[in-house]
């Protein structure tokens, strides 16, 4: 409750500062709409169903993109952590793509995959894959060597060492990577929906910019941030219930 009150107080202060900044006359309504106008616009868009439609479209894209990125990151991260020599086959490509901004790949994504959902999901995958891959790889590679020696003493097979020792030891890093990757997925939604989208929060913001509706732009920004925070909270809540020990204690 104390944390909630402190957070609410910060929000109230920011709203008051926003209101006085608008009332100062330094910025016009076109550049900086007031909180009341943004609030009314939010309710108008919520009332006609357009806001819910755009939000669900973005949620679906984030879900598919994040899921595909996690599966790919888990497979490659496991290979890199359990079989370090296999990394030489794909490490150069991964390192190269990790340093290429996904925005620069949009023209090629459109040429190769068209302007449908596939190119948008691939864009989200390219954005969220790398933090998850690096975290998962680190989790498996940093497994305590003493635990592996205990497994050898009990004559564990390779699969038993992976399932009983390496995977449980890597769970904290896997979860951290998933949490960071989920945030990157939401950050990528604007770029993904620049690819000739007909719906979604990113599309809503870009369309509002074209028709000079800064109040709708701010509504879109707030909705993206709020839904992203909600997804992060739900993920954190689920992990606290499904995990144990240090993960549960350190999860904020």
Describe the structure.
The protein is an all-alpha fold and 252 residues long. It contains twelve helices and no strands. The protein has helices spanning 2-23, 35-47, 50-82, 87-98, 106-113, 117-141, 145-153, 158-187, 189-192, 201-210, 214-242, 245-250.
Name the features.
252 residues, mainly alpha
Could you state the order of secondary-structure elements as H and E? Answer: HHHHHHHHHHHH
- Rg, rounded, reads 22 Å
β-sheet strand percentage: under 5%
Which range best describes the helical content: under 10%, 10-25%, 25-40%, 40-55%, 55-70% or over 70%?
A: over 70%
Overall shape? globular
Low-confidence stretches: 248-252
The class by helix and strand makeup works out as mainly alpha
Number of H- or I-type helical stretches: 12
Task: Please give the number of β-strands.
Answer: 0
Alpha carbon gap, first and last residue: 15 Å
Mean pLDDT over the residues: 82
For the biggest sheet, the summary is: none
List the helices and strands and how they pair.
Layout: H1 2-23, H2 35-47, H3 50-82, H4 87-98, H5 106-113, H6 117-141, H7 145-153, H8 158-187, H9 189-192, H10 201-210, H11 214-242, H12 245-250
Compact description:
This protein has 252 residues and is mainly α. The chain has helices at residues 2-23, 35-47, 50-82, 87-98, 106-113, 117-141, 145-153, 158-187, 189-192, 201-210, 214-242, 245-250.
